[in-house]
Design goal:
Elements (H helix, E strand, L loop, with lengths): L7 H11 L2 H6 L2 H4 L4 H19 L1 H9 L2 E3 L2 E3 L4 H10 L18 H14 L1 H20 L2 H12 L3 E6 L15 E4 L5 E11 L8 E8 L8 E6 L1 E3 L5 E4 L2 E6 L10 E14 L5 H37 L22 H33 L3 H36 L11 H9 L8 H13 L5 H16 L5 H24 L6 H29 L5 H18 L1 H11 L3 H4 L7
Parallel strand pairs: 3-6
Antiparallel strand pairs: 1-2, 4-5, 5-11, 6-7, 7-11, 8-9, 10-11
Helix pairs in contact: 1-4, 1-11, 1-17, 4-7, 7-8, 7-10, 7-11, 8-9, 8-10, 10-11, 10-12, 11-12, 11-17, 11-18, 12-13, 12-14, 14-17, 15-16, 16-17, 16-19, 17-18, 17-19
The structure holds flavin-adenine dinucleotide.
């Protein structure tokens, strides 16, 4: 199986040249002293090393062995525990955590790249740390000082893991239906009772404790509250105490992600502590969910990168057929890379992956600004942009991740369907990214219904105006490509206005058109990022790098950006042909 190598030059280029990370960091006191480009480059180098040498080697074996549930214990595949220990000791779980509680305080702009490498190396393993970091973020934002001091250092250090407990059999996309109950105890804690399904990392043998963030209802309320429920109770001196009525009912047997424990969790009068205000649990959980949504987009991105590397390597080795017009070397058979159709697939994966990485870093930058900027206006604007970009990053990156894995499998021909080559594992592992953390349909409805039309296009108009100004400032890209993207940005506003104007008289319009609108936005945004990357690459010292960027952007503008037109035209067709067929005819 191919070794994984992180695209380090590409990552440094995005940070330094495209999004001017050093400038962003220098303007934020929380970052100014702890990170500069040298530190960032050193962290990226180290992350590449552990992804390649530590995490990637357990990817295949973990898939083959899977997680086991034996005698009430969840056992991860061989090697997971040893790798996790080294990963945690290296500080990777708390990379972007608050230094006051033992985190490394690194910017998310950098964190997204580290996450991408880990997901490229192994989807299943990387989820454990990602859930922990997300849970810690919600505790940091909404927990009391006492809870923060007790739990965060142990979570940032990776000694305790985190889990997100929302889903129940009757409550998936619609969490209003949850039945888990929380009854107040006299000492201010709560008794939590109920069952959750599909809980990633709900239990495992990687850490000595698992900290569950559980959605439950207080007596006589329909509101939802958030509770911290440790698997094992924690004594005041932070030592572990008695068990806490948190048990694993079973583990799910899944299509992929075999090394990730997906658990049915039972809470029987488990002791829990309120996080945030009563009945405001969903708002608090959204801190974790938004983090995980970006992480799951990055799962798709990491998969795309791994898929590209495997397919490109294979296309250079596999010999079949002769190049159109005759073999360039005079051989009787050529590597399949000579064939136009194979090149089309590789260029598609790569041009979408590189623009996707730009989306990931840009989103990370907005997260950093929203959290750390001293400029109140910039901070508020970044928050509005995060609202827009979170569902897009989750859905568009994870959709492209599956596309990439399937296209790479196609490059392998029949060998891609055989387990040996490893490419089918990528397809199985990344499929879930379109489903969990809120399905991509739900992301699109959130995007079009709440983020785009919910404020009468205010955030979208602001975002588009900024992209237009950026594009007009580029002097090293073709005017035709600039005009192409500017036209699409204008159309995005026109079509959003049509939806907004008709949403009350046509109540199904948003739900029926949301996925097409999100896709149109995604392909247009990738156009913006391709312009930004080409403009920044014009004086790159490496001529190959410059040429690659020029070829990939040409491919994107000639072959892929038209997908935005198609999806916009679909939105304009409205919901009539979708909603008119009577339910009895399905
Ligand atoms: C491997 C795995 C790991 C998971 N990890 C976790 C975890 O750690 N924690 C956790 O709490 N949950 C977890 N989940 C649960 C996951 O988030 C849910 O499965 C997901 O949100 C969808 O819910 P559902 O399965 O009930 O589907 P449903 O809600 O039943 O949806 C079925 C279909 O209907 C569509 N749909 C539903 N409502 C609407 C609507 N209003 N408008 C348009 N379309 C709609 C959906 O998009 C979907 O296509 C995990 C699931 C899996 C499989």
């Amino acid at each position: 199986m191919n070794p994984y190598n992180a695209p380090l030059a590409e990552m440094r280029f995005l940070l330094e040249k495209v999004f001017d990370a050093p400038q962003t960091w220098s303007e934020m006191p929380a970052m100014a002293e702890s990170v500069d480009m040298d530190t960032a480059a050193a962290i990226l180098d180290e992350a590449d090393k552990i992804s390649r040498e530590l995490i990637h080697p357990i990817n295949r074996s973990g898939d083959e062995q899977g997680v086991r549930h034996e005698a009430d214990k969840v056992i991860t595949p061989d090697g997971y525990k040893a790798v996790y220990d080294q990963y945690a000791e290296g500080g990777w779980v708390g990379l972007c955590g608050d230094p006051e509680f033992g985190g490394m305080g690194m910017p998310k702009m950098l964190g997204v790249l580290v996450d991408e490498m880990a997901y490229s190396a192994c989807n299943a393993f990387t989820l454990y740390g990602s859930l922990t970091a997300g849970a810690a973020l919600a505790i940091h934002a909404h927990g009391s000082d006492e809870i923060k001091e007790q739990y965060l250092p142990m979570m940032y250090s990776g000694q305790w893991a985190g889990a997100m407990d929302m889903t129940e059999p009757q409550a998936g996309s619609d969490l209003r239906n949850i039945r888990t109950k929380a009854v107040p105890n006299e000492d201010g804690s709560y008794k939590i009772s109920g069952s959750k399904i599909f809980i990633t990392g709900g239990d495992h043998d990687l850490t000595e404790n698992v900290i569950h963030l559980v959605l439950a209802k207080l007596p006589n309320t329909s509101g939802i509250s958030l509770f911290l429920v440790p698997k094992i109770k924690v004594n005041p001196d932070n030592s572990l105490g008695e068990t806490n009525g948190v048990t694993v009912g079973s583990i799910e047997h899944k299509m992929g992600l075999k090394g990730s424990a997906t658990c049915v969790m039972n809470f029987d009068d488990a002791e829990g502590y309120l996080i945030g205000k009563p009945n405001r649990g969903l708002v608090c959980m959204f801190t974790m969910m938004n983090y995980e949504r970006l992480a799951i987009g990055i799962q798709g991105l990491g998969t795309s990168q791994a898929a590209y590397q495997m397919a490109a390597d294979y296309a250079k080795e596999r010999v079949q057929g002769v190049a159109a017009g005759g073999s360039p070397t005079g051989a009787s058979s050529d590597p399949i890379l000579v064939h136009g159709d194979v090149r089309r697939m590789l260029l598609t994966i790569r041009s979408l992956t590189e623009a996707g990485r730009a989306l990931s870093v840009y989103t990370g930058q907005q997260l950093d600004l929203a959290k750390y900027s001293q400029d109140a206006e910039l901070k508020a604007k970044a928050s509005r942009y995060m609202g827009l970009l979170t569902p897009v990053s989750k859905a568009f990156l994870s959709d492209r991740g599956l596309d990439a894995a399937i296209m790479a499998q196609q490059v392998f021909g029949g060998h891609g369907y055989i387990r040996e080559t490893g490419i089918e594992q990528l397809v199985r592992d990344t499929r879930i990214a379109q489903i969990y953390e809120g399905t991509n349909g739900i992301q699109a409805i959130d995007f079009l219904g709440r983020k785009v039309t919910g404020d009468n296009l205010a955030a979208l108009s602001e975002f588009v105006a900024e992209q237009v100004a950026n594009i007009n400032s580029y002097s090293h890209v073709s005017e035709a490509d600039k005009a192409r993207v500017l036209g699409l940005l204008e159309q995005l506003l026109v079509v959003a206005k049509q939806i907004n104007d008709n949403k009350l008289t046509q109540p199904a319009l948003i739900n029926a058109c949301a996925v097409d609108y999100l896709d149109a936005f995604g392909y247009s945004l990738y156009g913006c990022f391709w312009l930004a990357m080409c403009d920044a690459a014009h004086d790159h010292e490496d001529d190959n790098f410059k040429q690659q960027k020029a070829h990939l952007s040409r491919f994107y503008f000639d072959k892929l950006i038209a997908k935005a037109d198609y999806h916009l035209s679909q939105v304009s067709k409205g919901d009539g042909c979708i909603m008119q067929m009577d339910a009895s005819l399905f």
